[in-house]
Amino acid sequence: MGTCLCKEQSSETDEDSNVGSQNAPTVQSISAQVPAFEYESPTTASSSNFCNKFPACATVDRLILETLGIIGSLVENEQEPPPAMLKLHVIADKEDGWIQVVSSMVKVIPMNDPLGPAVITLLLDDCPLPTKESVLKLSEMFNLSAQSSLVGRKSPTHQRNICVLLGCLAEKLAGPSSISILTHGTLNYLIANLNVNVNPSVILFSLIALEKFAQTSENKVTIQKRLKTESKNPLLELERWINSEHYVERQVGFCAQWCLDNLFLVEGRKFSYECVDTSEINVMLNSNDVSEYLKLSPDGLEARCDAYSFESVRCTFQVSSGVWYYETLVITPGVMQIGWATKDSTFLNHDGYGIGDDEYSLAYDGCRRLIWHNAHNEAQSRQCWHPGDVLGSLLDLNKPEIVFYINGVPLAPCTHVFRTARSGFFAAASFMSFQQCRFNFGNKPFLYPPSDREFQSFNDHATLSPEEKVILPR
């Protein structure tokens, strides 16, 4: 179950021209639960002045870190937000408070927390919608430019968080406000970050920010024109990282390729689906059975979510008898629910419901170390998964039971789902923001095949027509 604590959603369309308090979600019910804060308005937009008002910067920093620390334990969509998050919402209801909260997130969210970027998006989505003026004031504070990208290489965590923030704001304020915040300096900053000498995490979230800005057509044209001024399109070089054994670089390669196929086309470059060899692939992630924002690789075996929703997908092959096994390479260590689902399992991406959240599916989440079924979870005494780990998923319809393996070590068998589903199972998965993994349905040797029973692989029994193997750009 993807954590979804946002009470209301609000965004601006291309036709909207006003962004302000009239569009912001009400905080009256939340404000009643926590004490009010008083502010002294800063005299300028400089970052030093934000510590001259109550609450102190250290207090906001602490609330941000408290929220980050507890967010991984919030497993029910109906749970009330933690007190720290409620207080941040109230602080951000004032313009200066919103800037203070955002500045604090940029400053204190650490690089090594797998939920860091997702928490930035969650907090921004929960806060009242900022005015365009607030966003521009924040932009002036950061003073973004190609030069600041160069200087910022010494502080990659800070720069990564700025890029996450820019992507969130680009999507939250889609339309005219998104156009206004993609200033000349901001665009040059993001393009300058697309350099192989920059920290890969900064490159990754710069790419994602450009993608979010390009959701507004005028921005898309502006970005394309700016990329053409480069002596060589940086996305072409970054695309080469797509099979890197460095897992952040691999994410960069995936996102660069996706942008080249879907957004920032380069004259003379073939689409990736025209170049990929799928002759030995008989099972894929189903591009016709996927929620709206999930990205699929051209070979149909890798999936990534950069949306602020809980995206899901099933594979193209279903089984109703026998013993079956597949493996998933963990590329990102955050929240993914990977397992099995029938056709009756539903994807409710905007409500945070995915695989394991209904009676027709069961999944393992190695970030929170939980087995999921029917939106209920069971804790597992395992370490959190890491990039490079392999999740094995075995479906034994003879017993019946499902067994998950972490790098070949089995978890306890699960039987919950068979109370309501006995046939028609697909491999399936759901993804929280900024998560990615790769599936092996048997077109390559398994790394950790089960040794206690005979099993079959999807790829040995399924077939796909040449047309069914094509993953078209959106």
UniProtKB/TrEMBL annotation:
Residues 263-446 form the B30.2/SPRY domain. Residues 1-25 are annotated as: Disordered. Pfam families: SPRY. Keywords: Metal-binding, Zinc, Zinc-finger. GO terms for molecular function: ubiquitin-protein transferase activity; zinc ion binding. GO terms for biological process: proteolysis involved in protein catabolic process. Gene3D superfamilies: 2.60.120.920. GO terms for cellular component: cytoplasm. This is B30.2/SPRY domain-containing protein. It comes from Timema douglasi. The lineage of its organism: Eukaryota, Metazoa, Ecdysozoa, Arthropoda, Hexapoda.
